[in-house]
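In line with agreed milestones, the collection of sequences with tokenised folds has grown. A representative record is reproduced below.
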Amino acid sequence: MKKPIFLLLLLVLISLISCKEKVTEPEAVGPVPSQRQLAWQDLEYYGFVHFNMNTFTDMEWGEGGESPKNFNPTNLDTRQWAKTAKDAGMKGIILTAKHHDGFCLWPTETTEHSVKNSPWKNGEGDVVKELAEACKEFGLKFGVYLSPWDRNHPEYAREEYVKVFHKQLEELLTNYGPVFEVWFDGANGGTGYYGGANENRKIDDATYYEWDKVTKIVRELQPEAVIFSGGNPDVRWVGNEHGFAAETNWSPFTPGSGNLQNGDDDGTHWIPAEADVSIRPGWYYHAREDHQVKTLPHLLDIYYKSVGRNASLLLNLPVDTRGLVHENDVEQLMKLRKQLDKDFAENLVEDANVVASSEAGSHYSAQKTINGDTKAYWMPQKETIKSNITIEFDELQEVNRFVVQEYIALGQRVKSFTLEGKINGEWKEIASETTIGYKRILRFDPVEVSALRLNITDAKARPLISNIEAYKAPLMMEAPEIVQHKDGLISIESYDKNLELYYTLNAEEPNKDSKRYSEEFLLQDPTRVIAVAYNPGTNSYSEVSNIRLDIPKKDWKVLNENDDAGKIIDADENSVWTKQGKLPQEVIVDLGKTYNLKGFTYLPQQSRWPQGVIADYEFMLSENGKQWKQVSEGEFSNIKNNPIEQLIEFKTTKARYFKFIGQRSADDTEVLGIAEIGVITE
């Protein structure tokens, strides 16, 4: 009889254990993403290509009356675009198939304003087709941008155009294979060519385009595609064109709330943020911006403040008039890829021990957060909000990156959390943040820890954490920046403050045996400063920065203008002075004392929309401010397409005053514009 009793007790025990282990899947909290939104979120980083009529007219917004004959790339190669995107780590490309000027990059049946009437390939070309095929070849997703506004079409703002717009959408979603995103711009209505009417036309963008029908077309023809903007969006604009999401970023969003950057913690719809930004100041290619491609530190900040803040990154590549991604852009893209590969090279938690404050059964154990499967997740016991996960290392680890993800299929939950590190046996706070969402990446100074602890301090419901990672990203070995301030003080800075900086003032290349930079220092005379960043941990050096600095501008004065003109001698290239009026226009500067001058420098405005870039100039000198001698005149060669600092030398002349005269601007406007002006002394 003992054996049957034993078996009975064993079955009861197993039943009790099973009951304890059986946990019902948690209910969703708030709005949740669709399958297409989940697939889109996994892409994280993809490219925008602005290439169209504006590329050839050197504009950002064409007016609509441009001739199709303008469109004629000399070496269009969509495979180069796709390869560049693939090598950069992007997962897809969205193409501006039609911008506001109405020119279509495919041979549409809806208008004559398209590639079919351009000289490119004798009108037989189709940019959309070529890029779709290139994306397929390189394993990239393909998306289309279609401007609702059409400044060319004669029927825009009337009922007939809406049918044209819908037909264009149908063509793009029918003839080019799978589409992952359909992008509708928010710019709608205004002045335009409109078939020769050249007038201002306004529409109600909420009703005019019949967004419900647009949505139906997309859902029927490309059910896996997400819709950006428009009347029924799956994805929202992040609220700026800098590529930065807010530190608090909810994917739930209530249309019309206006909270584009932050989203709404009580939002009615799941509409996550997409951060769009161009690698240059403009969206379309302009030769004048070849020197203004974003630097590696800038691009890295964009990545961490978009992908690292629960947004997807849409980085624009302005394809040039050849039909290629410019080599300067490619260079910076590859630098970013290389740095990201370094930052996330070794996940330190893969072999760590994971312990949670509580677990809702083995199916929801904390171990799920480091198994690489984002479909599995840790969940604490029922009704538990405040909870934590501890990552215990076998040996001390130096950490400066922390990645955490929520299981967003059941909603975004976490409202606030902290990260602690166990340092010398004591828990110390590393970071205190708000939302997590699909992905949150924290950057902080390196800390040596024996353990990390993620503390969920507030949430809508018990948290569901699907992934945790930790890394030791290497220090970024970029050449340091040397800055001369107006008072003559010199500062040297590196992107990573944990690097050591060394410099020389004797034209020799610096190393760790040179003078170490610790604080600003004063230079009164012309001096060549050479600086380098050094990583003692790897015994490696950055590239050097080498710059000749001239006399400080501390005692300089602009004589013939108001105080605002002082911006041209404040040693800050971001402050700009413009003088309206018929050219020529002049400005006079008193250097404070007499110098032997042998040249001058002129820096035009460095913004996206520069004003008063001077093409023809005259430069004059005086010892007393009364008698003037011309020492140089001429043209700043190619300054319209290359508006970098201009350096002009002349025969050494003794002077205390200089007069700069703008004779003609590069864009033939009646404006004198100066960001900074300086002299070269002997």
